[in-house]
């Protein structure tokens, strides 16, 4: 008998809560959907595509801003580093962080640790890079040939 009363009281409380929520959200719904939908004109499709292209261009500029604002173009440093790699090295990812000094990180895989050591020594001879660092575990092949080379310099 008491259980039925609790069920009815709980149901009424939930119905009142739903009604209050509905009344609280109704103005937002009316504000969004009370304005009639504009008719689609031939120029509207091009405006939407233009907006999409502008958004893509802005995101691309945001991503390329560190490259554009550098003192000298880091693409020449990246191109130099990539041109010096041997046949047994595979670069999968290049990361550039601007600053003083700027940092280029090359990550990939090597067929043998000796090839990675020769690559890091060849990069170290270049005056463009003030520092070339390779973690020791990469040089001994502990990561199954995967490596990360960090190049620092003013570029």
Description of the molecule:
This protein has 155 residues and is an alpha+beta fold. The chain has 2 domains: 33 residues; 80 residues, 2-Layer Sandwich (Gyrase A, domain 2). It is built from 5 helices and 4 strands, in the order αααββαβαβ. It is elongated, with a radius of gyration of 30 Å. The model has no long low-confidence stretch (mean pLDDT 82).
- Give the class-level CATH name of the largest domain: Alpha Beta
**How much β-strand is present in the residues?**
15-25%
* CATH homologous superfamily annotation of the largest domain: General secretion pathway protein M, EpsM
The third-level CATH topology of the largest domain is Gyrase A, domain 2
Number of strands: 4
Q: What's the structural domain tally?
A: 2
CATH architecture of the largest domain: 2-Layer Sandwich
Tell me the distance between the termini. 82 Å
Question: What shape does the CA trace take?
Answer: elongated
Alpha-beta content class:
alpha+beta
Low-pLDDT sequence parts: none
Number of helices: 5
Note the quaternary state here: single chain
Largest sheet, order of strands side by side? 1-2-4-3
Give the helices and strands as they follow along the chain. HHHEEHEHE
Largest sheet, in brief, is: 4 strands, antiparallel
The level of helicity is 40-55%
Gyration radius, to the nearest Å? 30 Å
Mean pLDDT: 82
